[in-house]
Amino acid sequence: MARKTNTRKRRVKKNIESGIAHIRSTFNNTIVTITDTQGNAIGWSSAGALGFKGSKKSTPFAAQMAAETAAKSATENGMKTLEVTVKGPGAGREAAIRSLQAAGLEVTAIVDVTPVPHNGCRPPKRRRV
């Protein structure tokens, strides 16, 4: 019986001018996903994926690095303009947006899509430090 040869599908570079950057900033991590206008993912990165561990994941610097990595993959696919949607209360929100602008992408709009409960779940108890 003949051996199967592994043929990997080659990544095709897309030529997409504009897209949406989804920044999910929680208290523990920051995830940046860049999609086209239909919502198909082009590139993504997170503080945890870059090797930050524990409380270092929630820092603005980690969010900045995650946004830079995601922006690099977006510019490789020809992206020039971005609309930014920000979700969550984390520390890395502003740092990630600034990093996307510094990477050479033109930010056309910034929209906050943080879900607000109509008095849903009971929040965690306050910390007494």
TrEMBL record:
**Keyword NAD among UniProt keywords:** no
GO molecular function terms attached to this record: rRNA binding; structural constituent of ribosome
What Gene3D superfamilies does UniProt report for this protein, alphabetically? Ribosomal protein S11
Q: What Pfam families does the database record attribute to this sequence? A: Ribosomal_S11 (PF00411)
Q: Which UniProt keywords apply?
A: Ribonucleoprotein, Ribosomal protein, RNA-binding, rRNA-binding
Does Ribonucleoprotein count among this protein's keywords? yes
Biological process annotations from GO: translation
**Which SUPFAM superfamilies does the entry mention?**
Translational machinery components
Q: Which GO terms describe its cellular component?
A: ribonucleoprotein complex; ribosome
Q: What does this protein do?
A: Located on the platform of the 30S subunit, it bridges several disparate RNA helices of the 16S rRNA. Forms part of the Shine-Dalgarno cleft in the 70S ribosome.
The record's subunit annotation is: Part of the 30S ribosomal subunit. Interacts with proteins S7 and S18. Binds to IF-3.
Q: Which PANTHER family match?
A: 40S RIBOSOMAL PROTEIN S14/30S RIBOSOMAL PROTEIN S11
Its family remark reads: Belongs to the universal ribosomal protein uS11 family.
Protein name, per record: Small ribosomal subunit protein uS11
* Organism (species): Oceanobacillus oncorhynchi
